[in-house]
Amino acid sequence: MTGARRGHCQRKTDMDDMDAATTSVASMASMAASTTTSATLLLLLVLSLQQCQGTDQDEYAPGSNVSIFPYFDFNVPRNVTTAEGQTGFLHCRVEHLGDKAVSWIRKRDLHILTAGVLTYTSDQRFTVIRPDRSENWTLQIRSSQGRDSGVYECQVNTEPKMSLSFQLNVIEWKAQILGSSDLHVKTGSSVTLTCVLSQGPHDLGTVQWFRNDVLLSNMLAGDVHPNALDPEPRLRITVAWTDALTSKLYISYAKPADSGNYTCKPTSLADSASVNVHVINGEHPAAMQHGNKNRASALSLHCLVYSVALVVMRR
After folding, report:
1. Which domains are seen in the chain, by residue range?
2. Disulfide check for 73: which of 93, 98, 121, 127 has CB 3.0–4.6 Å away?
């Protein structure tokens, strides 16, 4: 009885040992599987990081987070004004161009003007300026004309295409003297010549007045009013800057010696303007700057009445 009980206890102990061993093996297997999974995940993570690093090396500068994919520098003038006959410049700056190419396109007809440093138009006024290893691709338009005004695109052959638009304005920039180009005035009268220079592509500067190609500022000091009580010079120049540059030449007590060709010449690149002044004794049939329109109207009315009276009398 005692031996049977001992045998039963021994079998139970053996079974417990087998269960413990099985549990231990299962635990070890589970740990091994967990380790394998972790190793696999770790390997995938490393491969992913390497791939990302490879991509970063292509698109980012080493040691920085700044993209080196081509991009435009927007800190350039994109609305450019130039005068007819002058050379216009459109400055396009592309950073990190790499193996890409820059082209200039005229938007109104989609004509390719330049590609790289080559010109693709028969109009030789268009060229591209690109100093060696420079980020600047400048479209140069020599002898600009009014028809050159419009939109131009600087393009980079990326995928998708990159483009930046520029507006070119070509204007006729010249001074203008208001009124007739031939002016007749009476001796002793006052004359005012007004020269206007509109806004242009450059600083308006100022203007100089010439009479028969002689600078008037050299004449002003010693030429005073005939009235000794009036110390003001007979010739006086004023200049005002508003939306336009306006210069006025005042001549008081005009005399025959004041006759001649008067030129308003800007100190900028704008063209000058001229007018002929004739100082005469007595009336002149041509328009006088200070003529009496009322007197002329009255004279015309008198002539009309006289003509009608003659017709009535003849009847």
Report:
1. 71-171 (2.60.40.10), 175-279 (2.60.40.10)
2. 93
